[in-house]
Design a protein that fits this description.
alpha+beta, three-stranded antiparallel beta sheet, globular
Amino acid sequence: MRLVDAYKSNFVGKMYPDKLLKILRGEHFTVQVKNIVNGVTILTDGSVLKCIGDYYEKPNKSTKGNSNQKNFFLRCRNIRKDFNLDDIISDADCRMCHITCILREKTRELKRKKRRR
């Protein structure tokens, strides 16, 4: 079971980050972003991608935990502020948030949250 958990820990939204990066950039041949509604990104293959706050955290875990906020725009602004994205990414630009976080994870500025069982 640990091997399966280790394998799944490489996923963001049930896919590898490199594949997700291609999809978000519009470079994937078969899967594209279909719609973005209230911080949820829906892909043409039926996959659903939640907000970056559900997948990433700072290495020092100093994020304020705004993922419980009910108001979508306040949650978005607070999470972008926590991840230092508020100056470079506009409100509800989920695609750019995910792209930036994938790239920041590769440079170890962010890390992926541990999956809950």
